[in-house]
Specification:
67% helix; 2 helices; mainly alpha
Length: 49
Protein backbone atom coordinates (compact mmCIF):
# COMPACT_ATOMS: atom_id res chain seq x y z
CA UNK A 1 0.00 0.00 0.00
CA UNK A 2 2.81 2.38 0.88
CA UNK A 3 4.46 2.02 -2.53
CA UNK A 4 1.16 2.76 -4.29
CA UNK A 5 0.61 5.89 -2.18
CA UNK A 6 4.11 7.09 -3.04
CA UNK A 7 3.50 6.51 -6.74
CA UNK A 8 0.21 8.42 -6.69
CA UNK A 9 1.71 11.36 -4.79
CA UNK A 10 4.57 11.50 -7.31
CA UNK A 11 1.98 11.71 -10.11
CA UNK A 12 0.28 14.55 -8.21
CA UNK A 13 3.54 16.49 -7.86
CA UNK A 14 4.26 16.04 -11.58
CA UNK A 15 0.75 17.23 -12.45
CA UNK A 16 -0.26 13.99 -14.18
CA UNK A 17 -2.73 12.65 -11.58
CA UNK A 18 -6.31 12.61 -12.88
CA UNK A 19 -9.53 12.17 -10.94
CA UNK A 20 -11.01 9.02 -12.40
CA UNK A 21 -10.46 7.60 -15.84
CA UNK A 22 -10.01 10.52 -18.22
CA UNK A 23 -10.99 13.04 -15.52
CA UNK A 24 -9.56 16.47 -14.78
CA UNK A 25 -6.07 16.93 -13.34
CA UNK A 26 -6.06 16.90 -9.53
CA UNK A 27 -4.89 20.21 -8.03
CA UNK A 28 -5.90 19.73 -4.38
CA UNK A 29 -3.37 17.81 -2.23
CA UNK A 30 -6.16 16.50 0.03
CA UNK A 31 -7.89 14.98 -2.99
CA UNK A 32 -4.59 13.42 -4.10
CA UNK A 33 -4.19 11.81 -0.66
CA UNK A 34 -7.75 10.45 -0.83
CA UNK A 35 -7.08 8.91 -4.25
CA UNK A 36 -3.78 7.45 -3.02
CA UNK A 37 -5.43 5.83 0.01
CA UNK A 38 -8.27 4.39 -2.09
CA UNK A 39 -5.89 2.93 -4.69
CA UNK A 40 -3.60 1.62 -1.95
CA UNK A 41 -6.49 -0.20 -0.28
CA UNK A 42 -7.48 -1.77 -3.62
CA UNK A 43 -3.91 -2.96 -4.20
CA UNK A 44 -3.60 -4.38 -0.67
CA UNK A 45 -6.94 -6.17 -0.90
CA UNK A 46 -5.91 -7.91 -4.13
CA UNK A 47 -2.65 -9.22 -2.64
CA UNK A 48 -4.32 -10.93 0.34
CA UNK A 49 -6.07 -13.51 -1.84
Amino acid sequence: MQAKVGKVMKEFKEGTLHSGKGGKVVKNPKQAIAIAMAEGKKAAKGKKK
